[in-house]
Amino acid sequence: MKAGSKVLFVASTFKHIRAFHIPYIKMLQDVGVLVDSAANEIQFADEVPSRNIEIPISRSPFSIKNISAILQLRKKIKVEKYDLIHCHTAMGSVVARIAAASVRTRTKVIYTAHGFHFFRGGPLKNWLFYFPMELVLSFVTDVLITINREDFRLAKKYFKSRQNFLLDGVGLNTNKFDAVKLSKDEIRLRNGFRTDQTLVLYIAEFIPRKNHRFVIELVKKKVITNCVFLFAGRGQLLDKIEKEISDNQLEDQIKILGFRSDIAEIIKMCDFGISLSKQEGLPMNVLEFIYSSKTVLVSNIRGNNDIIEHYKNGLLFELDDSASFCQQLALLIEDKKMLKDLSYQAKNSSSKYAQQIALERTLNIYQNVLNS
What we know:
By secondary structure, the chain is of the alpha/beta class. The protein is built from 16 helices and 13 strands.
């Protein structure tokens, strides 16, 4: 890209931009590009190194705030005359594309879908609402980037964006994992766990689609007794889940770790990871496990099964199938050779998800779309 070009990032919240897109902003700034970011919740923008604009984008598609957001963003686009807009998140992309189309500039628009809200086996209401919306907006999308095979096939078959790309996620920053020097046993002892326990880690927000209660119910019924589940994360259901664990006296087998800034160490001290999720784009938690040489047992859904090949670098179980989950869990706990082999292959399969590869591919897309 040429020095002096102007790029706008748009997402529903600055929390999203802070979590995933700072490396892309810095990459563009390093080649002399002026970068602005527009999102809601400006309080999370302190670490975002662009010029930041607060726009009242609501995650609810029915909120009147999104009309105001479109009008404000339209005015900004008209004044700044951006060369490129890269939008993210469902409603962030809706607001950005409507605003850009209404200005009728030559600004190119890229949308990265971090997982469509409609998917195989997903709720009918999502298909009836979000699919037609994406179909219409695809006509004003120059490039649609998807991060899993199912979304890419849908985009290629139905949507009218000028170009479609499949990328292996937004890129995993491996630095914090490479920096861990303590041994597995040292980390366990420092966190109050024995070295002979089987520790199974789930890194996920406490929200309905992450499905924590699936394991809680199995532990309540004493179907699983030979491991300790660690839940790391925060979210709206945290207090409710903590109370359920306490009320049922499950604290010995389910430990709530909360949000952890030392997640690389927490991964290293566990034996393997799990994902119980009902819906994913391309899950960063699974990528973190496999890069850390930890195999995973994950629900067989879009995103998870893009990363994990059954009996190759991890194990899959059918969503909400307790028999399938328990069978695969038992294999990982009891068959130490299998666990070791799968963990080795997990590490080998992680290289294509490195952040540097994602940055280079995205920069090539930027250059391609601006030259087209």
